[in-house]
Amino acid sequence: MKSANSLPIRTAKDTAHKNMLPKLSRRHRTLIVLALTTLLLLSIVTGSYILSDSGLSVNFEIKNQAPSMNNLFGTDWLGRDMFTRTVKGLSLSLGVGMMAALVSAVLALFLGICAATLGKTVDTAVTWLVDLFLGVPHLVIIILIAFSVGGGIRGVIIGVAVTHWPSLARVIRAEVMQLRSAEYVQVSRHLGKSRWWVATHHLLPHLISQFFVGLILLFPHAILHEAGISFLGFGLSPDTPAIGIILSEAMRYLSTGMWWLAFFPGVSLLIMVRAFDILGNNILLLLDPHKAHE
Amino acid sequence: MQLKQLILFILGKMVKMFILLAALCLLSFWMVSNSPVDPVQAYVGADMMLVGPEQLERISAYWGVDKPPIEQFGRWASALLQGDLGTSMIFRRPVASIIKERFFASLILMGLAWTLSGLVGFALGIVAGMKQNTWVDKAIKSYCLILASTPTFWLGLILLIIFAVWLNWFPLGLAVPAGVLTENVRLIDRIHHLILPALTLSVLGVANIALHTRQKLVEVLSSEYVLLARARGASETEILWRHGIRNIALPAITLQFASLSELFGGSVLAETVFSYPGLGRATVQAGLRSDVPLLLGCVIFSAVFVFSGNLIADTVYRVVDPRIRHKDGAV
Amino acid sequence: MALNQSVLSVNELTVSFRQYTRGLRQIELTVITGLSAEIQPGKILAVIGSSGSGKSLLAHAILGILPSNARVTGTMAYDGEELTAERQVKLRGREIAFIPQSVNYLDPLMKVGAQVRASIKDNKKEVQRDIFARYHLDSQVENLYPFQLSGGMARRVLVSGAMVSDARLIIADEPTPGLHPEIVEEALTHLRQLADEGRAVMLITHDVGAVLNVADYIAVFYAGTTVETAPVKDFAGKGEALRHPYSKALWKALPQNDFIPVSGFQPSPGDLPLGCLFSPRCPMASRECFESRPLERELRGGKVRCYHAT
Ligand SMILES: Nc1ncnc2c1ncn2[C@@H]1O[C@H](COP(=O)(O)OP(=O)(O)OP(=O)(O)O)[C@@H](O)[C@H]1O
Ligand code: SF4
Ligand SMILES: [Mg+2]
Question: Would A7 be classed as within a structural domain?
Fold first, then answer.
């Protein structure tokens, strides 16, 4: 924090300035950002349903067109509309990313709670497991898993899920440890309630908000990894046009100078990932202004 | 006394690393042996027609596919302990020598990107932290947050379109000019081929280190010792040099060493985009073409690489931080 | 009070912090309310008050080192001229010296000798060695890191860091706790000497007993304001000469006096009482005490903030 040395002792000037230019409070700004990002993400999903499939049909008459009013993102070498492809690809990536993030978050929840409640041995085991998964590059593990399950959506989901749980698991473990020492939990234990009872009645409600924030913050990573792994050729098959596939196809047409093939899908992916990041951080900010890092 | 402690610490970490590596070997082997891809067929690949049944049998004997998985693992692991990683199916050469060669190429690429991202990120982080909450800070922060959400491979594609296709400043890919014999490749050519991939690869690191450095510097600047320095008349520049750098350099260096995992992951993507013949690309090829020995080799090697980075990070901390260095030196 | 022009005068100072709670709702914590104080050259003003009464924040406000979420109103003057943010930057370390409250004010990664030398202009090494010797710090201490020092040694390092300057105003925020009585004596005598040379000293402390021998005036803090400022001689006997009910109670609570603790708690900055800040605990409170806050007024050679003080 900077010291108040730029702060005049009298702040009359300051307030006058503020009155002339009414600023939104942080709360309002945050809520507006939340609403906008949610809207954007929803429009991607609904857009992919609303857009007709006609844009995806092959039409050599309009192949290789640069962006125009008719084809906002241009067309590809088969005359398919890149805008339609991008929106559908995004929503597919979104779905797979969400699935993977969800599995990963559940895994994190489970392992975090186990580590915190089942005693020292389990805790150590989970710590070692974390070290193991942090010790190999994520992409390499995902490639290995994708290979061992024979590629496809399943490989991506398992791979991304298995590599992304450690950070959330740590948060949850710490949270549970703290809650466990809280007084009312101790009292219930004294009253002879089982561990399971304590877990479901006291711990879970507190963990749910942590869990959801963690989940939302997992999405961007999951989506990026999904795109990366599909781009490399391990993820979805070419007939399911996720963003990673679209981009890897675009790579083959790089030297033709058709920049729009790679540019728009990538920017859209970037915006979507960023939107999730903003969404998660703003929710975190609302729940706990001191812990948020943005 | 202190040296002894340090050695014990490193040894302890190494033991842990070996246990983790052993677990990783077991796990990876189990995963690939569950793969629907038949290694014999993968090995023979398109040559299936040309290989006689006799030869086929020899190959499966070599792979021990007819033996139970435990025994297969035992054979593989004991060979591994003797430094024998097997023979790559796609390159038809020992995996160890391929990894050595490819890793050297990757090391140059990663080293360059790593240094670049460290320096640029650290500088950006300091500027942002010193100018906290001004537009400069906000600009740097947004820039980094956007970089952190940028798919590495897409950035590579865009750089290629701009600098290779449009401006023609750089080649489209590979590590050396096509069609030139290795001994005729000049250093300048290598550098020429290295710039775009290194730039692409450095981007994610820049964002990480800059945001982290900024955060640390902000913490330091709001610390009580900086408050005292201010109260005693030190200027902001003096504070940065006297207290800032001292307290943020070590965490930054540590983070940089601990980020080898992401760096390696990034190199897998960057090398694919630029057709750069490094270890990352070898991993992808091994996976796509079911080259099990090479894939396992890459997995294990990348783990050793990342573990070494973490070990260096921990060791640097112990050697440099006086609070740990002089642990029993209190008066 | 003295006719001398004050080195520092603080007038109706209010400090509040903006904070965000769950849901990003903004709240305002007022930690210093309408505080006034002044110090003359050659005098020691002791500031006493319980924990959380705003003593350190007053020191930080004078130096201009409050965090950026602090809002400050009121005026301060140094040498009769308004103490603006720019002047604070110019004066601190040169005209105003500061001894901070805790050993966390030392950089954990820097040798303590170097930290002290940073605030010396010429002859760094020599001056630092002299001052270390004065505070019985061994010559090798300069090469140690803060974590290698005992609490008392670290405090002496902090004190010596302020004593190397030739400042005209010294602000010492609890310089003595945890120190050996001999060294407390040494530090206080040193402060007295500095005052006798014509400097002004603001000595913040919990402990009235320790400063009775060195201070000229004592300002009593309560919940972020000065309830009374009195010459040190009024702190005697059963406190009959004191003006404010809180100062009297505080005086009586001392072990060497009646040792009767003041009942109740200081209000928290989040919900200050509407009227007199002491009203919830005051035995003399009347209706007007609960409705509005008493202004500071002169009384028998001191200042007091109470409707009923005589
Ligand atoms: N940065 C801050 N944000 C919010 N409240 C603060 C901040 N700093 C201090 N306070 C509050 O201001 C009040 C006064 O604090 P201050 O440090 O001045 O007390 P003090 O009189 O020096 O106490 P002590 O004798 O314990 O040092 C306390 O209630 C404290 O909680
Ligand atoms: S003003 Fe009233 S409440 Fe406050 S101290 Fe005086 S008598 Fe007590
Ligand atoms: Mg204090």
Answer: no
Q: Does C107 sit within 8 Å of B247, measured CB to CB? A: yes
Residue pair A172/A210 in contact by the 8 Å Cβ criterion: yes
Domain of residue A45, residue span: 25-51+73-286
**Contact flag B154-A134 (C-beta cutoff 8 Å):** no
Ligand 1, closest atom to CA C55?
21
Asked whether residue A133 is domain-assigned, the answer is yes
Residue C289 Cα to ligand 2 middle (Å) = 6
Chain B and chain C share a number of CB contacts under 8 A equal to 80
Express each pLDDT in A181-232 by its tens digit: 766 666 666 666 666 676 667 667 777 888 888 888 888 888 898 888 888 8
C21: nearest CA in chain A? A289
Half-sphere exposure of B200 (CA within 13 A, CB side): 32
Chain A contact for B167 (CB, 8 A cutoff):
no
Q: What number of C-beta contacts closer than 8 Å exist between A and B?
A: 156
Partners of C204 in the β-ladder: C47, C173
pLDDT in tens, A151-168: 788 888 898 899 888 888
Whether the CB of C271 is below 8 Å from some CB of chain A: the reply is no
In a domain, C42, yes or no: yes
Q: Is residue C201 part of a domain?
A: yes
pLDDT tens readout for residues B208-230: 999 999 999 999 999 999 999 99
Mean pLDDT computed over B148-168:
86
- CA–CA distances in Å: residue B119 to residues A224, B127, B251, C130: 25, 12, 14, 42
Q: For the domain that residue A145 is a member of, what is the CATH number?
A: 1.10.3720.10
Put simply, the answer to whether A138 touches B230 (Cβ < 8 Å) is no
Which atom of ligand 1 is found nearest the CA of C54? 18
Of chain C, the percentage scoring pLDDT greater than 70 comes to 99
Chain C positions touching A4 (Cβ under 8 A) are 64-68, 70, 72, 85
CA distance B326 to chain C (A): 8
Number of folded domains that form chain A: 1
Give the helix, strand, coil percentages of chain A, each rounded to 5.
75, 0, 25
pTM of whole model > 0.90? no
Complex prediction ipTM? 0.88
pLDDT value of position B228: 93
Domain assignment of residue A37, yes or no: yes
- Structural domain includes residue C172: yes
For A151-189, b/e burial (b = at least 16 CB within 10 A) is bebebbbbbbbbbbbbbbbbbbbebbeebbeeeebeeee
Residue nearest (by alpha carbon) to ligand 1 atom 19: C52
Segments forming the whole domain that contains residue C86: 8-95+167-275
- Identify all chain B residues contacting A291, using CB atoms and an 8 Å cutoff: none
Per-residue model confidence (pLDDT) at position B141? 92
Structurally, how many domains does chain C consist of? 1
User: In chain A, whose CA is at the least distance from the CA of B221?
Assistant: A1
Report pLDDT for C56.
93
- Specify the residue with its C-alpha closest to ligand 1, atom 14: C54
Pairing mode, strands C96-99 and C169-173 = parallel
Provide CATH code, domain B95-279+313-325: 1.10.3720.10
C135 within a domain of the structure (yes/no): no
The two tokens of residue C34 are 């309408």
pLDDT band at residue A4 under the 50/70/90 scheme: very low
Among all chains, which residue has been given the structure tokens 């573990």?
A: B307
Q: Report pLDDT digits (tens) over C224-244.
A: 899 999 999 998 888 888 899
Token pair 């000037």 is at which residue? A13
| Residue C226, domain CATH | 3.40.50.300
Burial of C163 (0-12, 13-18, 19+ CB in 10 A): buried
